[in-house]
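so my prof wants the structure for this chain in the tokens format not the other one, which i didnt know existed until like an hour ago. anyway here's the sequence
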Amino acid sequence: MFWVIQENLKNEIGFERLLQAINLRSLPFEIIKIIPFSHDFVSEPHITEDAVIVSGSTALSKIAMERGWKPGAFLNDNFDFSVWKEAYKGLLLNEDGTIEEFGKLDPKEPIFVRPCSDHKTFAGFIIEPDKLQAWQEQIFGISDGYATLTPETLVLSATPKLIYEEYRFFVIDGQVITGSLYKAGDHLRYSQDCDEEARAFAESAAQVWQPDRAFVIDIATTPNGPKIIEINCLTSSGFYEADVDCLVGALEKSFG
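here's what i got, hopefully its the right format
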């Protein structure tokens, strides 16, 4: 496949490993830049293959979809929380989660909040009621057309949960290809050494339902066993310490 890779804007720790894996296989690729607030490239990539895959931001994945690149990006409406909360009923960390407009949130206690969609408007986190109110007031004051978060943006809100560790697993055609620990308690910690129960849970969840042939699933270990935190688009997710070489090989085998 031809790989369209976005420049390393966020110092992604797996960026160099991705390039190494691609170069090791002598795969064609091009590193691109996206014009801010657009779906256009600074310079058009010179694509030399029929099969094209991307790696970068959600904006790049959207561009791939708009241009009809195949496999392009693994992104569709199934990645909205309103869809996968039904598919994974009974397996979710935030089983008690509710969906409402960001501007209408009015909790009396701290809540976990994240966007319903996988468009990376903001990362999920726990917030105090007073800080949420201040944030809402800030958003209410933004009127330009470039705002990605608006009072009408649908979000998931849920009670905070006790989490021991958080893992990310990369799934292709129902099989976990690789994974990484990325958080232990409240601390970021990256390791390829993944909890076997969490890995098995991720694979069993993939047998229940898959949003696309390739996707990312984040698993939390909790007092009640492993639970699904969220699913994400594989082509716009961070690698952490996952085996990127193994992932590239699996993607080439399945889609190249």
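also thought this was worth mentioning. The CA atoms of residues 81 and 229 lie 11 Å apart.
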